[in-house]
Amino acid sequence: MPLILQPPQKSNSAYQAIEKALADVENEPLYAVPLNLRNAPTGYMKNIGYGTNYKYPHSFPGHFVQEDYLPPNLKGKQYYLPSENGSEKTIKERLIALWKGRKKYDK
To answer: Which residue in 107, 100, 35, 14 sits closest to 64, CA to CA?
Structure first.
């Protein structure tokens, strides 16, 4: 039996998320990457806090941790807001369960 691949579904929510993120890149100041997300290949970088308290999601159940990866100036910002259509409804339900009320997913 031949393998039948389904084409990817189009997602206006994903498109809107990319557009919002690109707008922030163009319009917001260039914020520093949070220290916990920075690689620390040298002792000096480790000493000044690079990589401190970083939680590697793949080391946790479900490969997920409730961490914000945006700079403090963008704290709470959400780009992707899944719809109630198709597979996005399932994604939305999973995100709500993972974030346990910490993020808002209604438009």
So the answer is: 100
